[in-house]
Amino acid sequence: MLPSRHFRFSELKAYSSGFESALDMVPTGIALLSRDGQIIFMNRSAAALVAERDGLLSTSTGFRAEQQTESELLTKAIRQATSTSKGRITPVRGALFISRRTRPPLQVLIGPIRPSMVQLSQRIGVVVFINDPCRTQRPTDSLLRTLYELTRAECRVALLLSDGRAPREIADTLGVTENTVRSQIKSIYNKTGVKRQSELIRLLLGQSWPSGQGGAMP
To answer: Is 156 within the bounds of a domain?
Structure first.
């Protein structure tokens, strides 16, 4: 589900690289546009979606869609959000759908950012949220360590649990005792706030995760 357009960037209280790093941890694609619609920043998720060049495209002047009608609606929504960010009372369209060739459409939400809401070196006027309903990529070990403070061993066990593996099977796979695995599972549940394996599977596989962070565990 896309975030509300009332997303409180002021809560982040961050500058430049720190702010961008925080947005890179968000699984939803997020792009920040200037007051004339140019793309100033895209987090990892947004950049990955745009790099596919399937439906949503980035140009030197900003975003556009492959389909002309959708591209016109996208441009209009960005202009309306820009006007609102400048203090003009203009209705802002909520969600747009950007068609892709063979996959379900991207869900795009556009909203204004007032100058006082975020402190960056460049003037931001618009935020664009981009969600791909098809993305079910598993989180990387580095992201799990960052979000839940799991150890590397716990990350291995957590991802095997998300594959539906039983504790004994995990122990055989990793070459450790079943008691060790059960102890790690207890720690994983405590750190992630879940109580059973089915809840952990929903947590790890039931949402989109940013790609390109960390990498596969050795």
So the answer is: yes
Instruction: Report pLDDT digits (tens) over 90-120.
Output: 444 457 899 999 988 998 989 887 654 455 5
Distance CA 202, CA 217 (A): 21
Distance CA 203, CA 162 (A): 9
* pTM given for the model: 0.57
34 three-state secondary structure: coil
Q: Is the dihedral of CA 191, 193, 199, 201 positive or negative?
A: negative
Residue 3 in any domain: the answer is no
**Burial bucket for residue 23 (CB in 10 Å: 0-12, 13-18, 19+):** buried
Domain co-membership, 120 together with 48:
yes
Angle at 134 between CA 132 and CA 137, to 5 degrees: 95
